[in-house]
Amino acid sequence: MKCDKIWATKLTTQVDFVKGHCGWDILTLVPEGQVPMGQELQTALKIIDPPINGGLEVGFLGEGSKPGEITLRMMDSTSRDWLSMCGGMTQVIGKALVETFFKNRFDIDISLPRITIQLLTKAGTIPIEIEVSNGKANRITSKMDDYAAYLYRDGVEEVALQGCKLLRVGDFLIMDINELEAKHTDIDFTRLDHGPQLEILYDILKEYMLRVRAKFGVAGMMYDQRPQGLGQFRIYSRFYSQDRSAAKIPYEFQCGTGTVAVGMAIAHKGQIPFRGNKGSIIFEWGNQAVTPDPYGIKTSKLDLQLENGSVLQAKFSHSVVEILEEGRMTLPGYG
Question: Of 9, 40, 218, 321, which has fewest CB within 10 angstroms of its CB?
């Protein structure tokens, strides 16, 4: 769908945009160079906030120095600052490069059955492979080796918060639901609706936020081994910020960086469901019994290669990736 978004103001800036989502993680992509230099973060905040409500993240896509390279700068609503990496955004970018105006902007040849693009990010180079058929991106695979190395540099360590034994993987707090239930035996942590389960999680995440000295918010990921479909694990995104923006989404949303972080946590704890140093994990998102989803059971496939129990290579793909709209939006100016 194409549309124009316009708000009257004395000083305005126009930007082209694509809005998409991967399993309810809604985000907006814009080209580099359309806003005043130095005002990109301010622009991203305007896109995120009302009345535009552009989703949870904003990505700026620019030309790389070599063919097949695209620079990517990301901002997210939890930290309200630049973000090192957003895996879901790489999935939506793969879709946008084939099916929106970004195809012409970056001279993408969609007659090829498979396209490889190098995304240059703060966390390293993230190659994406796009499978193309009849002008549509049917599957996007994001290779997250550099991101896994980035998380390892930041550290993997056990942490105790609110009486629960949890795991820090980079800037993620990874929570095995078994550990939460050992402390709170009568709480169903798989529920997304308001209730004691969310308040307990928010107390944990607030303490974690203070410990890591985050300014606006932190990222938490829960998991269990109680799949309802063909998966091996279920994941639950629980991002915390004071405005609780992520909690406003009524369904469980997919998170690519969280997928990798949970995979690293599972490797660290010796819970890998395959033998040897190479294999795949299928993650299901949420608990369909308590949070039914119009897409049914959403899944993410994570392919891992291990070395001495650590993740050496990681690539993932989400089952739900869609473009919602594209067009041009008019933003309040900077005068």
Answer: 9
Helical (H) or strand (E) element with 268: helix 256-268
Q: How far apart are CA 188 and CA 198, in angstroms?
A: 10
Q: Is 95 left (phi over 0), alpha (psi -120 to 50) or beta?
A: alpha
The helix or strand, by DSSP H or E, that contains position 70, with its residue range, turns out to be strand 69-76
Amino acid at 138: N
Asked if 131 and 139 count as a contact pair (C-beta separation under 8 A), the reply is yes
32: which residues sit within 8 A by CB, 6+ positions away?
60, 61, 62, 63, 71, 73
Is 90 exceeded by the pLDDT of residue 284? yes
Strand 278-285 relative to strand 299-307, pairing: antiparallel
Q: What dihedral do alpha carbons 83, 155, 254, 198 form, nearest 10°?
A: -100
Of residues 185, 177, 180, 176, the one with CA closest to residue 164:
180
Tokens of 250: 């009524």
Claim: this prediction has a pTM higher than 0.85: yes
Which of 3.10.310.10, 2.60.40.3080, 3.40.50.150, 2.40.50.100 is the CATH number of 2-143+321-332?
3.10.310.10
Structure confidence at residue 12 as a pLDDT band (50, 70, 90): low
**pLDDT bracket for residue 1 (50, 70, 90):** very low
Taking the C-alpha atoms of residue 89 and residue 28, their distance in angstroms, rounded to an integer, is 9
pLDDT (tens digit, 9 = 90+) per residue, 21-32?
999 999 999 999
Which 3 state secondary structure label does DSSP give 271?
coil
* Cβ atoms within 10 Å, residue 269: 13
Number of H helices, E strands in the chain: 7, 18
Residue 188 CA to residue 138 CA, distance in Å, equals 36
Residue 332: exposure state from Cβ atoms within 10 A (0-12, 13-18, ≥19): middle
User: What is the arithmetic mean of pLDDT over 309-313?
Assistant: 97
**150-318 CATH fold:** Diaminopimelate Epimerase; Chain A, domain 1 (3.10.310)
